[in-house]
């Protein structure tokens, strides 16, 4: 009898012990899994189009820096990059879906910079901070919500630096005035109509020269939508119209268009005028080194990516974003432009 009770008891004890062990194992396995599973940050990145040299470098930088942060912080950063294919309706649908899938922050390279209000309202409703970049929404829209930010460079500064490059060349090299009339004859290749960088770079590049007392004459100007192929076609057309020999300077709102103009002059066998761009893309820097592109203005794509990521991380940690980035008026992060000519390429890396 005693033995029966004993064996019964021990059986019960064994079962209880096994159960407890199982429970403990399950618990610790659970805890272990939670420890091993890093926190996931979901970031939606909406590009106006993927088919843009400068924008694709920003996306690449963002991807690279996110991987570095994952290593450094022991978290996972899921970037969902979507291509708006230059269509605002498409981009809004993509953003709806990113919000629907529960993203923690949005980085938006908006297609139509006048259409930010609806997007900011959607983000606010879902409480997802929205960081615009490169394509600047109108100022009133940015005031709709405290968690709407813009990261980019000041468009007029890009124009001023480009104008100064030409001014310096004009003042130091008399052969630039090909026809010797004391007037600077130029053509202008513009980015997308309505883009802050197209409008302000165009205006301030020329204004920098006229403010310095240089007489200028615009021979032709047209939009080539930031694209090398379109710029080549426009320049080709100007050359066909016989402008070739009279162009002293080609201003292009970006490097791809500057390279397109160079393509056209080279193909036509025309002597290259002084050509300037903006962005400092890799092919543009090669053209500077080859002496075909006189200069460019560095558009800090890596800086844009860095500031966006710093903002995303700060917001995710519920830190004050002003501690993570230099925030102007509570909404803006400004990256500086920098002029680049062959002289800068010769300087040894700091
Ligand atoms: C500009 C850049 C262009 C193009 C455009 C797209 O800042 O210079 O090359 O990328 O942004 O919004
Ligand atoms: Ca002249």
Automatic annotation (TrEMBL):
Where does the secretion signal sit in this chain? 1-36
* Matching Pfam families: Peripla_BP_4
Q: Name the domain of life this protein comes from.
A: Bacteria
InterPro entries, per this entry?
A: Bact_Solute-Bind_Prot2, MglB-like_PBP1, Peripla_BP_I, SBP_2_dom
Record key words, sorted = Calcium, Metal-binding, Periplasm, Signal, Sugar transport, Transport
- Single GO MF descriptor: carbohydrate binding
**Where do the Periplasmic binding protein domain residues begin and end?**
43-318
Q: Where in the cell is it found?
A: Cell envelope
Report what the protein is called. Answer: D-galactose/methyl-galactoside binding periplasmic protein MglB
Which species expresses this protein natively?
Candidatus Allofournierella pullicola
């Amino acid at each position: 009898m005693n033995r029966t009770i004993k064996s019964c008891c021990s059986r019960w004890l064994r079962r209880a012990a096994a159960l407890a062990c199982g429970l403990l194992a399950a618990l610790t396995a659970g805890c272990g899994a939670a420890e091993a599973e890093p926190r996931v940050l979901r970031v939606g990145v909406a590009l106006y189009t993927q088919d843009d040299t400068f924008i694709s470098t920003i996306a690449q930088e963002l991807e690279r820096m996110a991987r570095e942060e994952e290593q450094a912080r022991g978290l996972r950063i899921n970037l969902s990059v979507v291509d708006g294919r230059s269509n605002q309706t498409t981009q809004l649908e993509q953003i709806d879906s990113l919000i629907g899938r529960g993203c923690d922050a949005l980085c938006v390279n908006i297609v139509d910079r006048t259409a930010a209000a609806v997007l900011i309202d959607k983000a606010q409703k879902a409480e997802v901070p929205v960081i615009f970049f490169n394509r600047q929404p109108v100022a009133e829209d940015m005031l709709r919500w405290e968690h709407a930010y813009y990261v980019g460079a000041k468009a007029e500064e890009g124009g001023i630096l480009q104008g100064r490059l030409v001014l310096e060349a004009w003042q130091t090299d008399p052969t630039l005035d090909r026809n010797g009339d004391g007037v600077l004859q130029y053509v202008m290749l513009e980015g997308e109509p309505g883009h802050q960088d197209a409008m302000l770079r165009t205006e301030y590049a020329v204004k920098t020269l006229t403010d310095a007392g240089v007489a200028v004459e615009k021979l032709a100007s047209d939009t080539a939508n930031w694209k090398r192929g379109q710029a080549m076609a426009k320049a080709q057309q100007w050359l066909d119209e016989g402008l070739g020999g009279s162009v002293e300077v080609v201003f292009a709102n970006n490097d791809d268009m500057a390279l397109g103009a160079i393509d056209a002059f080279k193909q036509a066998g025309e002597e290259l005028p002084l050509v300037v761009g903006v962005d400092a893309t890799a092919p543009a820097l090669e053209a500077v080194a080859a002496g075909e592109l006189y200069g460019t203005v560095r558009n800090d794509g890596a800086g844009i990516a860095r500031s966006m990521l710093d903002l995303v991380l700060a917001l995710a940690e519920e830190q004050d974003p002003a501690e993570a980035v230099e925030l102007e008026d509570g909404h803006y992060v400004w990256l500086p432009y920098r002029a680049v000519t062959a002289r800068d390429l010769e300087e040894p890396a700091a």
